[in-house]
## 1
Amino acid sequence: MSTITLLLALLGIASFAVLFYFLRFKASSRQTDRDNRIPWHKIWFQRERYKETKASIEEQNQPKVEKQSSEEEDADFKD
Amino acid sequence: MSKHAALDRFGRSGNPLIRSDLFNQTALDNEGVTTLDGAVNKTAILLALTVSTAAISWNFQGPTMGLISGIGMFAAVIASLATYGLWIFRWIIKPTPHRAPYTAPIYAIGMGFAIGLISEQMESLFPGIVIQAVSLTFFVAASLLLLYKTGVIRPDQNFLLIMVSATLGIFFTYIASFIYAMVTGSSFSIITDTGLMGIGFSLLVVAIAALNLVLDFDIIEQAAENRTPKYMEWFGAMALVATLIWLYLEILRLIAKLRS
């Protein structure tokens, strides 16, 4: 093994340790407290958003049908 | 209808397009949410799987292993498409992060077989290249992590747009080169060339692959901050491992060009 390979191997071990040690720490406030962060929720939860949109539309449509039928019953009662 | 029942029924059905609660699908206890520790552990598990299968394909060379590596790579591509989806100007396949706990190990194992085969072939041509490439990969990753955590690099939507465009550009270049090679028998000289152009191209690809790591760190960080479901740990870990593998392969190619 050449000297450069040995040095790079040592650098690699140190870097591996640094990577797995610092990955556990929360990022600084300079990174987290800003308004222009990437909105990952909009990107990765596309399918869930579609399902929720569909469910909410169905949910909003459901009470209207019930309401119409109750009005009809009232009208019959008056007669 | 009581006040609580009405709130329960209508209060949750605000416009989902302007709501960001989906990312905050919080669990009441800490056991069901993403943590940085959990993401790190999952990354370690995936890397261990990759290294283990790479060691198998490294030590047992032959036509059967070539076939297994091919199947492994195909499975890895399917697994990543099933998880991250496919975006080419619009979503062709929508991302499904909840599949990550199942697809991430498949990806790691599949890519491990392919990496082992490629690494063994490169090592036989350039002794010591694998150790150098692995070390440089972790060095670049650790450096970018420190830059990200300290807030020196702050990814925003413009950064994301640039990275997606650049990554798609590289992806299409490789696809075009692959098709060209199948037709003519020789690939694009800019990819395989050992001259200044080829080295410059490899340096550019290494830089883009390295900057993709910043996006992965941001995915993990935001997933932990927003207390997303546990499967986001696998999702973030898979993204990080995929970028590390890409970076490793590009560094391997760059060193091979420099040593040729």
Note: Helices of chain A lie at 3-22, 29-32, 40-44, 46-78.
## 2
Amino acid sequence: MDLDELYQEIILEHYKQPKNQGELPEPDVVIEGRNPFCGDQIKLTMRMRNGVVEDVKFTGSGCAISQASASVMTEHIKGKTVEEVQKLFREFSGMVKGEDPLHPHIPETDELSAFKGVSAYPTRVKCALLAWNALKEGIEREIKEKK
Amino acid sequence: MGAGDSPQTVFDVEAVRSCFPIFQQPENRNLIYFDNPATTQRPVQVLDAIRRFHEEYNSNTHRSAYKLAEKATAGYECARLQVAQFIGARHAHEIIFTAGATQSLNFVAYGWARKFLKAGDEILVTELEHHSNLVPWQETAKRTGATLKFLPIDSEGRLLIEDLETLVSERTRLAAITHASNVLGTRVDVKRIIEAVHAVGGLVVVDGVQYVPHARVNVEELDADFYAFSGHKMLGPMGIGILYGKEQLLEAMDPVMFGGSMIDQVHHHYSTWAKLPWKFEAGTQNIPGVIGLGAAIDFLEQIGLDKIEAHCRALTDYALQKLQEIELLKIYCPDTERNPVISFTVRNLHPHDLATFFDSRNIAVRSGHHCAQLVMRKLGIPATARIGFYLYNTFAEIDRFIDVVGQALGYFARWI
């Protein structure tokens, strides 16, 4: 297995210089994610407007995969509706779990596809999904509260 | 540097290694297994003993009057005697078989602590504890009203044993102490703690799961009240653990599990309990596990625990010396009376990423908090990488490992 498939340049860049790091003042959604097996953690703060993610930031500590994944994720979900975010979650999670690799939903040109290599490392899938699982929980809670 | 330049070993490591089928598998030919604190590999002697039980005399113990069952019972009870001798227990019936050290510790929590502790009592633990010797006491404290006290470690991971003086009082009814840290390798002077706690009338349960595979334990000399360890960390199978307890304490304890085999008489509304040790062994036990454990003890004793300890110490000294030469790499608690365990971090590099790199070079290294979040918090880090050696590891493996550390630093150079 080629390690470069896992540690792609984009991942290293986001790990070294994460985007959207910090905490939003007066967020609508605050959610924490933890990986009890390795101690990695993430905290997301989101501001929502009319069912759209207006802004999102994260803080946390963990490996390159988990932190870079959080950084790329925050860039991707800004401006998206709750439904679009949920769809993206399914697509991203399917990709890193290696489901249906011949019919990728995420195009090669998309930064998110940098995490495709994770599927060859089953123990690292949970790292790539740490921020995404927290996001999913936050979005679901938001939907429930709005009903 | 090759193996030829390395210090001499005290027994024929290659001969020992050839007893372990896992290292003979073609796909494992290059495997370096350094995750021994998590679990050790099993020699063919252990696997054969288990297979022979299944193939030649599989039957239930203590129940039936036929030859197979007699043989199974003899094998099971013989292993109990072996364990008793191995740790210097006075009586075989002071050895209780459990599913693992975690269950052993929980037996003390449920059977002894919940019965005898009350509000105002104190339970002393160290900040070095594995969660298995911490969480049962948190729960015990909640349910009995007892208070949990901590013997602290400093920011380097050193146990501040002098704090015993101020922490131990007549309120200290129980201390639950690890004999060696699974994260840092630190060996703990449990004898000193036992003396201090006994002096105020308290009891001590020792978590020996990391210590027993590596050094001779004598529970009588230590005067430990309870002592817990696991088979799979000392070449035995998974799913078998040991609880040693002093006879009078086990007698005073309530059974934890109820059912078949642990009874004396059963009436409509009440029952009486079997004698020790069977009072604590309800239901069909892990008989092949016990027989495999017996074979593991035979294997260790044949080589000699003192020789195994000397070999592992030489490996550890060698690895420490090599690792200390590497800039950017931090070793936790390097100067301590230790088990063959080393925890380290590399600046700005998460241990997971390091472990994935090692894995790509076929080296099994543990990364994470190692079920010791109190230790991590004290060290101010989320995780470490950990290596741990056992009798089948070699100096040549350490040389290759050191080489791969260098490769990892090169690979990740752009971000450290």
Note: Chain B is about 40% helix and 15% strand.
